[in-house]
Design goal:
This protein is mainly α and about 140 residues long. It is built from 5 helices and 3 strands, in the order αββαααβα. It has a 3-stranded antiparallel sheet with strand order 2-1-3. Keywords: Membrane, Transmembrane, Transmembrane helix.
Length: about 140
């Protein structure tokens, strides 16, 4: 198998599998994956990954970049929404917990919200799809 289709297959599989990996850890809630039992944007990413896989098998390199770009748009939209939600939560806590003795605990919990390894795997998959679209064999 040539380089571009191989990169496309690996990238699409990484993108698909990453939707089921934890992308976020929230204290007292646990890990959250991108798929969220079929309710999240992970469904869209999984569909994009399957389209990318078919395109890689058919050796349609040019369209690999289009699938990567569409995945970046969805992932970027989700990331921006996540950042806005965290900022809104911090602002609301500052207003509501002004004289509350448990404010420090709440601040610590917000600081413990972390992006997990599923997000990194997703980004690697997208990069491989971009490279598959650029490489000419």
């Amino acid at each position: 198998m040539k380089t571009a289709p191989l990169l496309g297959v690996i990238g699409s599989l990484l993108l698909f599998v990453s939707t089921f990996m934890p992308i976020l850890t929230v204290p007292l809630y646990g890990s959250i994956n991108y798929f969220q039992n079929g309710l999240g944007y992970g469904v869209v990413i999984a569909a994009i990954a399957m389209i990318a896989l078919v395109l890689a098998i058919l050796k349609e390199n040019l369209f690999q970049s289009a699938t990567a770009l569409s995945a970046v748009i969805v992932i970027g939209y989700t990331y921006i929404n996540f950042q806005h939600a965290i900022d809104a939560l911090r602002t609301e806590m500052q207003v509501r917990l002004v004289s509350n003795p448990l404010r420090g605990l709440a601040d610590g919990m917000i600081k413990e919200i972390q992006i997990e390894y599923g997000f990194v795997v997703m980004v690697i998959g997208v990069i491989l799809l971009f490279v598959a679209g650029i490489v000419r064999d």
